[in-house]
Amino acid sequence: MTFLGYPRPDGRVGVRNHVVVISSVSCANGVVEAIGRELPAVKAITHTEGCGRGPDDVSIAIRTLAGTISNPNVASALVIGLGCEVIKAAMISVQAAATGKRIEHFGIQESGGTPASIARGLQIASEMLEEASSIQRQEFGLEKLTFAVECGGSDSMSGLTANACIGEVTDWLVGAGGTVLMSEITEFIGAEEAIAGRCGSPEVRERLLKLLAEQRSLVKEKLGPMAHMVIAPGNAEGGLSSIEEKSLGSLAKGGSSTIAEVVEYAEQPGGPGLVIMNTPGSDIFSMTGKIAGGAQLLLFSTGRGSPAGHPITPVIKVASNTGLFEAMPDDMDFNAGVVMESSAIADAGAELRALAIEVANGIPTKAEINRSEMFAIHSTGSPF
């Protein structure tokens, strides 16, 4: 099987062909947003970072911003800074330029202020849009694909239906030589024994269990005797009783594939296979990290109805139950509730796989149609 994608100079392949205008610091958000209003075809991405963070969080933010515009779904990018910030536009631009794509940057102070910067950005972004329009889709093998898997607003059915169907897609893509990124370390708590047996090497097992132990310790420190209840209110209302129950259901997104690697937040994997990324449990932070790590498409299971998408990567919403699918038809892409009604998991998984290829080939997801685009960078709160 193959898909149609956009070739990039570094050998990777995009399933979308975006031009991105992004801020290096929140002070530049106004200029970025103004360019986005004038040129709706660009993806204008803003955030809250740039200054006032400790060294660890500065590194995370730079890696995330550079990784986002390095993602193969991006044809070219313009980074706009202010000029006096910690995270300068040049830092992000230089890292992303290693992809061979057109990456430009400038600062508002050096450009003569806000109106002059908007005009300068509009000129550059317009050129980039014209250049991107000349790139045509070509046929590629599945080994060029990196999917991310996510669950948000889980309910008691998520692990049995939606996550199980996603697991079928994971095993299929990994088996075809592709890559799947799974994250949210908090949601592995209580399932350490199950996940340890799936690691491909002692080194991977040791690193993953170390991260899990650190996360368990942190949760216990903050919540004490209530540590077992580190789940969202919506999860409890949906029928989940504990983090252990949620974790076992969450792991189903990884199918039965061997865990090949563990990477840090927004870090690109070193090779194919099922890869665990060290992210928090928050859906938006988690999505941002995996897409900065190179995911061209994301499969997102939900039992409560999260509509969240992302600016540059299509997000397929997989409803865990038919009631949700029928209640939010303009937000959900796939009904995994059929597993409890008539379809075998393997059959539903095959249908989801076919949908994923259609989306990779250009069919828009509901989140893309709705412009439900979320972007938030994880921070640890570490001091200077």
Please describe what this structure looks like.
The chain folds into two domains: 18-132, Rossmann fold; 142-370. It is an alpha/beta fold. The strands form three sheets. A seven-stranded parallel β-sheet has the order 10-11-9-8-12-13-14, with helices on both faces. A four-stranded parallel β-sheet has the order 4-3-5-6, sandwiched between helices. It contains 13 helices and 14 strands. A hairpin with a 5-residue loop joins strand 1 (2-7) and strand 2. The model has no long low-confidence stretch (mean pLDDT 92). The protein has helices at residues 29-38, 55-70, 89-97, 114-132, 162-175, 192-196, 202-223, 233-237, 243-251, 283-292, 322-327, 345-360, 366-370, and strands at residues 2-7, 13-14, 18-23, 43-45, 74-81, 102-107, 138-141, 146-151, 179-182, 259-263, 273-277, 297-302, 315-319, 334-335. Helix 2 packs across helix 3 (89-97), helix 2 (55-70) packs across helix 10 (283-292) and helix 5 (162-175) crosses helix 12.
SS strand fraction: 15-25%
Average pLDDT, all residues:
92
Radius of gyration: 20 Å
Spatial strand sequence of the major β-sheet = 10-11-9-8-12-13-14
**Percentage of helical residues?**
25-40%
What's the number of structural domains? 2
Biggest sheet features: 7 strands, parallel
Beginning-to-end CA distance, first to last residue: 50 Å
Count of helices?
13
Secondary-structure element pattern, one letter each: EEEHEHEHEHEEHEHHHHEEHEEHEHH
Which descriptor suits the 3D outline?
Answer: globular
Unreliable residue runs: none
The number of strands is 14
Q: What structural class do you assign from the helix and strand content?
A: alpha/beta
